[in-house]
Amino acid sequence: MAENVNIDLSGEINATTEKKGLQKYVNEVELLLQHVRSGAAPALVLGLLSNRRPWTQFIATENFKSPASIPRLTRRFYRNIEYFQANYLVVFLGLFAYCLITSPLLLIAMVASFFGYRKLTSGPNTWKIGSWELSKTQQYAVYAAASMALCWLAGAGAVLFWVLGATVTVVALHASFFDAESLPPSDEQFPMIEQV
């Protein structure tokens, strides 16, 4: 009765566990940074912007309510961040554009830095200081130092922190007070059930 049965068990097992909460977003940010490093940032931004929700839904004042409890606030916050992420990106870009328009010196510094970079990468450039020729790495270092100095003089640090601070404030307030239960159902099975 006993037969020898040969079963091939070779291969790879890809056991990925579904991440929840903050770890899910940390992994998504790491994946996003990998795409940015590979040069896919413009396509990624355009793909994200194609998922933008209607502005009438985004600013519907009848959906703003204070959360009943801290766990509900947490779920509401994550759900709104996930659902309205393209709208939040547009808010950030709008605040950034506002800062560039209202600070002409910063706009000039950004344009000068951009065209300096284009000139540097456009072909075989040789820079000489006296009789000493700079290598490409040294040229990039000089360009980076000059761009940072120019942006510092134009007040880019203050603008950066203002834009980030204003964006975080607007996004946190909207995500916290916009009632996520009024949104269409998500893929999760019971996203708004509270554990007592």
From TrEMBL:
Key word Ribonucleoprotein present: no
Short name of any one Pfam family annotated for the protein: PRA1
Cited InterPro entries: Prenylated_rab_accept_PRA1
Manganese in keyword set: no
Principal location: cytoplasm
Annotated GO CC locations: Golgi apparatus; membrane; synaptic vesicle
Membrane-spanning ranges: 86-117, 140-173
Keywords, in A-Z order: Membrane, Transmembrane, Transmembrane helix
Membrane topology: Multi-pass membrane protein
Signal peptide (residue range): none
Coiled-coil region list: none
Compartment(s) of residence: Cytoplasmic vesicle, Secretory vesicle, Synaptic vesicle; Membrane
Record-stated family: Belongs to the PRA1 family.
The name this protein goes by in its record: PRA1 family protein
The species this protein was found in: Papilio xuthus
